[in-house]
Structure formats: C-alpha cells, structure tokens
Write a structure and sequence with these properties.
A 6-stranded mixed beta sheet has the order 3-2-4-1-5-6. The chain is globular, with a radius of gyration of 17 Å. It is α/β, with parallel strands linked by helices. The protein is built from 7 helices and 6 strands, in the order βαβαβααβααββα. The protein starts with a strand and ends with a helix. Helices cover 35% and strands 19% of the residues. It has a single domain, classed as Rossmann fold.
C-alpha cells in the first residue's frame, strides 16, 4: 500500500535588490512581499505538519515565521539551496563579460562558469533532498526553496527538456503543490495546484 503526501513548494519572496545571478549570495527579502506571502500560507486551509527549507536567509525568514505560527517542526536541507553561480554569484548581467554571457545563453547546461556548481551536480543534490522529504513522517509538507530547485523538480516530474526548462516561469512567491504516492519503487507524483508568484513580485 502506498503512502500519500501533499508537498507544497514555495519560492521565497522577492529579494530587496534585483540580481540576475542570485545563488548562494545571501540577500534579505522585501519585508512587505514576505509578509504577504506569509499571510497567504497561514490562511490556506491546507495543514502544515513539517517545514523544510533552504538554509539561505531569504528562505529562512519565511520558514521561521511559519514555524513560529504553526509550531510545525522546521528542518534545513542544504540540498534545497539555489545553484552556486561561482564567480557570477551576486552579479547583474552588465557585470559579466558580454562574450561570456552570450556563450552561456547559447548553451547554459554545458557552459562552464568559474567555480560554479555544474547543473548535473545540482540535479543530484536536489534529487537527494527530494528523497529526504519523502522520508518525513508528515503527510502535509511545506518546502521553502528557490526557483532553480523548483524548476529542476518540475523538469523531473513533468518530463521537460533542458531547452524548455528556462522557459518555465517561476516567480518569487510562486507555489507548486504535488500529491505524492510513496511506493517501494518510484513515487507517483501528481500536480494538484500551481499558483503564480506575480502578486508577490509586484509588491
């Protein structure tokens, strides 16, 4: 018999400063946008029995607030962090050499950014984080993470190609909820809701 879990992934609120390559660079979030997102989460009828979050501050501020309100246990998973962009981390596009930027956009999965985390390595750690979530005793889980993590999971669950991955818009505050039947082999995953982050982007 399979065990059913409801897992809601939410992208953190918009940062206080716009950066094109925001990975491990720690940046605070916009207070009003974060408060709006927090209110939406706690007003939602879906229960929250456990919270898993990226350890970066822009995720932790929301995860901590929900934890304090709900008293649901909070766990930080390194595997839920955003991609490490290496020398580009914390930069805007205009700070990157134009030829390097053009080469990256032409072949983003194979272009090597100095000191950056390879995409395949990121996929592996995100997959390990996903398997850790499925080991939780909770049946309703909130996961506060980043756009890159959510895109890679959508790619896996929906069978998206690498090319279409970068066409998938996941704004700040976006929420994607999955119903997961945990089986002895491959979990069966069903998309049950997708909420745009446009509202929170605009704050």
């Amino acid at each position: 018999m399979s065990e059913v879990k409801i897992v809601r992934f939410v992208r953190h609120a918009k940062p206080e400063k716009a950066l094109d390559f925001l990975g491990r660079y720690d940046l605070a979030v916009d207070f009003d946008a974060n408060q709006l997102l927090f209110n939406q989460l706690i007003d939602d009828p879906m229960p929250i029995e456990a919270i898993y979050a990226s350890p970066l501050a822009r995720c932790g501020v929301l995860a901590q607030a929900v934890h304090q309100h709900t008293q649901a246990p909070l766990y930080y998973l390194d595997g839920l962090q955003e991609r490490d962009w290496g020398e580009w981390d914390g930069c805007c596009r205009h700070q990157v050499a134009p030829d390097a930027l053009a080469a990256y956009y032409a072949d983003p999965f194979n272009y090597v950014i100095a000191a950056a985390e390879p995409w395949n390595q990121m996929r592996e750690r995100v997959q390990q984080a996903w398997l850790s979530l499925l080991q939780s005793e909770a049946s309703h889980i909130l996961c506060v993470t980043h756009g890159g993590v959510m895109r890679l999971l959508c790619q896996q669950f929906l069978g998206l190609s690498d090319h279409t991955l970068f066409q998938l818009g996941i704004g700040y505050g976006a929420q994607i909820t999955w119903r997961v039947s945990v089986t002895p082999t491959t979990p069966f995953v069903e998309l049950i809701s997708w909420q745009s982050g446009a509202l929170y982007d605009a704050v």
